[in-house]
Amino acid sequence: MAKTMDILHIELDGKVSTKTVSEGDEDYLITSEEECYRLISEVKASNIRYQRTQLLAQSDWTQNSDIPESTRAKWQSYRQALRDITTHEKFPDTFDVESDFPDKPS
């Protein structure tokens, strides 16, 4: 009887699910629990950085020279907070993309 194991299956979009695989399957890989957590942490960090990059790109227009200085200044603080995400105390393992990203200026 072939050995089976449950694994965490992580999609590129960050969705995590469990999957049962058998020895010999492409996804069957024995590694340490510590290594698994390190890889999950890496994926989470990459996903957060990707979302941060998207938010920065969406706010690039706010730094154009034809934008009023008061508006640029508000957005500069927001953009700096985005850049500082990797120093956030929850980054990456318990960082919540729904609540821990800074709020966009109004």
Q: Average pLDDT, to the nearest integer? A: 87
Whole-number radius of gyration? 20 Å
Query: What can be said about the biggest beta sheet?
Result: 2 strands, antiparallel
N/C terminus separation: 62 Å
The low-confidence parts are none
Order of helices and strands: EEHH
* Overall 3D shape: elongated
Q: What structural class is derived from the secondary structure elements?
A: alpha+beta
**Amount of beta strand:** 5-15%
Number of strands: 2
Spatial order of strands in the largest sheet: 1-2
Helix content: 25-40%
Features:
106 residues; alpha+beta; elongated; 2 helices; two-stranded antiparallel sheet; single chain
Structure, explained:
The protein is an alpha+beta fold and 106 residues long. The chain has a domain at 50-106. The protein is 39% helix and 13% strand. It is built from 2 helices and 2 strands. It has helices at 33-58, 69-83; strands spanning 4-10, 16-22. The protein has a two-stranded antiparallel ribbon with strand order 1-2. The longest helix is centred in the middle third of the chain and has 26 residues, at 33-58. The model has no long low-confidence stretch (mean pLDDT 87).
